[in-house]
Amino acid sequence: MNKKVLITGVGGQDGAYLAQFLLNKGYTVYGTSRDAEASNFSSLVRLGIADDVSLLSMAPHDFKSTLTVISKVLPDEIYHLAGQTSVGLSFEQPSETIESIIIGTLNVLESMRFLKLPARFYHASSSECFGDSQGVSADEYTSFKPVSPYAIAKSSAHWLVKNYREAYNIFAVNGILFNHESVLRPARFVTQKVIRSAYKISKGSKDKLNLGDLSIVRDWGWAPEYVDAMWRILQAEKAEDFVIATGEANSLQEFVAQSFAHYGLNWKDHVIQNIQFMRPNEIPWSQGNPRKAFEKLGWKATKKMGDVIQILAESQ
Predict the structure, then answer these.
(1) What pLDDT was estimated at residue 38?
(2) What pTM was computed for the model?
(3) Long-range contacts: 159-165, Cβ < 8 Å, 24+?
(4) Residue 146: enclosing H or E segment and its boundaries?
(5) What angle, rounded to 10 degrees, do the helices at 223-235 and 13-24 form?
């Protein structure tokens, strides 16, 4: 393919899988983190591609840093995945969340405009922007009702992308991804927390698993499939935004029950619902409608929650 691609936040779950996916397609892959020399890029190492990605230091919230890297690489495609990624942490660090997501996205877009770079730009939008979908699946026309600093930041960045697309004719798109998991997910995410606890308890641990609201409903998919969707969005003839999801909704309690059942355990014997783990403003129901992605991109999730649990459990 002989194309150059720049992935911001390449050390994260999505960045690592996307780098692997694009390397397999023949791209020359450049990846950034705030300090490339100090970062260990464990996800790239785990996938065996650390030596195949050209790593660069870039602070997206700093315009000069962003402009310097983009002008050096002059990529054909940019996947902007950098920024604070935890909804829970955004309540504790709202300023850093707002700055890293909104200003970071703005600086990449401004750099493209300043350089008149004919690249295609993908922004990692989020299902969190929708807030509570109230028992129905959200699509590209569903209104945003963000309920966390993270979601507010992502919503703002989403509209920045749309603004630059319409005002400056930049091929800039949003991938509105619902929850997607993998073995590369950090331990702080609830899916990994559940799987790891169930595994340890099955091996004799007496610890209890403390969780927040078990009634919340989510649309859980498999991350390696979702990076394929990212690429397809950028290959489309027209710049458009897409919801990427499985279309299936399950409660956290169902996720917990199936995870513990995988190891022959009854979750009720080992899980405590703890008010300390409840967020100030939680989303009761989050489910996506991926019909447009299937009809226009030919993309469809093949792995649902049960598949995700099995893969994660077997990887312990």
Answers:
(1) 79
(2) 0.96
(3) 160/102, 160/105, 160/106, 160/109, 161/105, 161/109, 161/121, 161/123, 161/125, 161/241, 162/241, 164/109, 164/112, 164/113, 165/239
(4) none
(5) 60
Structure confidence by residue, pLDDT tens digits, 196-231: 999 999 999 999 999 999 999 999 999 999 999 999
**Is 193 contained in some domain?**
yes
pLDDT at 139: 98
In a domain, 37, yes or no: yes
Model pLDDT for residues 74-114, shown as the tens digit of each residue: 999 999 999 988 888 888 999 999 999 999 999 999 999 99
- Whether residues 68 and 171 fall in one domain: yes
Q: What is the Cα–Cα distance from 112 to 6, expressed in whole angstroms?
A: 12
The residue range of the domain holding 36 is 4-180+221-244
Residue 291 is assigned to a structural domain of this protein: no
**Integer Cα distance of 148 and 94 in angstroms:** 9
CATH number at residue 88: 3.40.50.720
Domain count, the chain: 2
Q: Point out the residues that are catalytic.
A: 126, 128, 150
Task: Name the CA dihedral angle for 153, 99, 222, 256, rounded to a multiple of 10 degrees.
Answer: -80
